[in-house]
Specification:
homodimer; about 180 residues; mainly alpha; about 75% helix; elongated; DNA-binding
Chain lengths: ~180, ~180
DNA sequence: TTTACTGTACCGTCTGGACGGTATATCTCC
DNA sequence: GGAGATATACCGTCCAGACGGTACAGTAAA
């Protein structure tokens, strides 16, 4: 374990997200989060005074990760559209995990989580519109990305989905 | 209240779904479901011996509703594709509610819910492929539908989304 | 001395579920 | 036809355990 020495705070957020993704918010109890991060419950509550602060901390980190992702998307070698679609299927990255966790929380009627996701989506949309020069197409691509994400996180994944989408987009751009 | 006399069983399932959709599975406690259905907790447990049986009952009803929906889609006057897209945004129907509730449960690592949804999606896909004669396009349309659903249930809805999709599809069919 | 924890003990509330009871309708045997 | 048995559809209470959170004494390192 000579890794990059992840801070306890980050390990707690990692554990929180992983539990939410794996078992839903029900499974992400304070005890479970502390145990998964190999920290005592007292230790968890030292960093995050309540479950709500844990959520807040997670969303804050997501926003930072999101800004970086939009940057990467903007300068992706194979183009923004392909970058967006490719990263819409869960690759298991930290960012994917944070995104799925936030979506789960958003569905529980948490306006802060919905807001964070909406802001992120706006960032992606801007880049998609710039690169396609077409609002309708940009929105449609974003919906396809959402669909890929949804399927992935609901156990409905289809390995060939991305190829089908690419085929259709190729036909469109041939116009 | 001269209505069609919904059975207690159905009212319990209605309440269960409504609570899941509104507040996530956390909010759908036995007490809350019983109260919402205006039945005592004992009464609930008479019809569904455990929370698991409540889930089972819900999925069973969803399967029946799903079969009917595929029938309707098959013979929709404006075509199957438009029917599918239009019913992918939450109209507040019983079927929509059941579908959203099932998706929530599926995300909690419940293989039975994932299976029920996957079967349903297969039914829709068959019809989409028949009507488009194109597997890639059918899959892509299905992804767009999933995206519409996801956005709707995550508080990210965009009123014009459907119009943008229609515009893109029109361009495609012009080929 | 401050920071970053560990560990244990505890509290009030909520949760799933068990259980005993009740009202009413239907069926059974004489 | 009347007495009793049985089934159906519930009600309301109780309990053990889990949960979020508090409190606090101790520790090891910088």
């Amino acid at each position: 374990m000579a890794g990059p020495e992840r801070s306890t705070r980050d390990r707690l957020l990692d554990a929180f997200e992983t539990l939410i993704v794996g078992t839903g918010t029900r499974g992400a109890t304070l005890d479970a989060v502390a145990a998964a991060a190999e920290v005592s419950k007292g230790g968890l509550l030292y960093h995050f005074g309540s479950k709500d602060e844990l959520v807040e901390g997670m969303l804050e980190r997501l926003r930072r990760q999101g800004e970086q992702d939009v940057e990467k998307m903007r300068s992706a070698p194979n183009g923004a559209v392909d970058f967006y679609l490719e990263t819409s299927v869960d690759s298991g990255s930290d960012f994917d995990r944070a995104l799925i966790a936030a979506a789960r929380i958003a569905q529980e009627n948490e306006p802060r989580a919905s807001k964070a996701l909406a802001d992120l989506r706006e960032g992606w949309f801007e880049v998609l519109r710039e690169h396609t020069g077409d609002e309708s197409l940009a929105r449609t691509i974003q919906l396809i990305g959402d669909g890929l994400y949804f399927d992935d996180t609901t156990g409905l994944a289809d390995a060939n989905a991305l190829d089908h989408v690419r085929a259709v987009l190729r036909r469109l751009s041939a116009l």
